[in-house]
């Protein structure tokens, strides 16, 4: 299936691909691919990501650095990739590092809340809906994908301010503890059907 949604946010572009094709159909679209994962679901996600890149006009595949972040070896375009059941999300920018995440809102995030909610977030969680839990998890995944000076701990180093959360799309402030100090990052979100999509870039540090 072609791209189902494209979002342009200043110098960041986000594109979504709904995976409805069989593996052989995706391979027909992208051609020969080497070093694919052995797990079938991961393999299909990887090929679908390549199909999305090709549809957007990118003529090269991507690699991963030592921290697991995707990058182009022969281009200054920065990319970030996320998968959830049946959907690929891609963010790219020519001017800044980017992070993107997409999650299903139907997942039971309450079950793992202790692993990712900060102390302040947990205090207010009695008022949370499933959308709040999904949004906080997705936002922290997006923040984590940016190139910080250390590996961030979700429930200690990232805190999401939900004061601006009042609709199906908008922006939030994230607070990140990095290099001994807290910094604020402006992060954007939208809900699409049963999915929560979040994105940001290093130029969004306030």
TrEMBL record:
One of its GO terms (molecular function) is magnesium ion binding. The keyword Iron does not apply. Residues 98-172 form the 4'-phosphopantetheinyl transferase domain. Pfam families: ACPS. Keywords: Transferase. This is 4'-phosphopantetheinyl transferase superfamily protein. The keyword Transferase applies. InterPro entries: 4-PPantetheinyl_Trfase_dom, 4-PPantetheinyl_Trfase_dom_sf.
């Amino acid at each position: 299936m072609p791209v189902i949604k494209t979002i342009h946010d200043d110098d960041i572009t986000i594109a979504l691909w709904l995976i409805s094709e069989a593996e052989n159909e995706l391979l027909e679209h992208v051609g020969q691919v080497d070093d694919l994962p052995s797990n079938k679901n991961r393999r299909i996600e990887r090929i679908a990501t390549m199909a999305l890149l090709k549809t957007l006009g990118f003529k090269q595949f991507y690699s991963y650095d030592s921290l697991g972040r995707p990058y182009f070896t022969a281009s200054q375009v920065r990319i970030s990739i996320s998968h959830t059941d049946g959907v690929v999300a891609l963010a790219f920018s020519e001017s800044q590092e980017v992070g993107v995440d997409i999650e299903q809102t139907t997942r039971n995030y309450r079950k793992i809340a202790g692993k990712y909610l900060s102390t302040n977030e947990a205090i207010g969680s009695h008022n949370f809906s499933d959308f709040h839990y999904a949004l906080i998890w997705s936002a922290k995944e997006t923040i984590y994908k940016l190139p910080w000076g250390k590996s961030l701990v979700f429930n200690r180093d990232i805190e999401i301010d939900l004061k601006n959360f009042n609709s199906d799309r908008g922006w939030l402030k994230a607070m990140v503890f990095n290099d001994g100090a807290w910094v604020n990052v402006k992060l954007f979100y939208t809900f699409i059907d049963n999915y929560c999509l979040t994105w940001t870039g290093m130029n969004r540090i306030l």
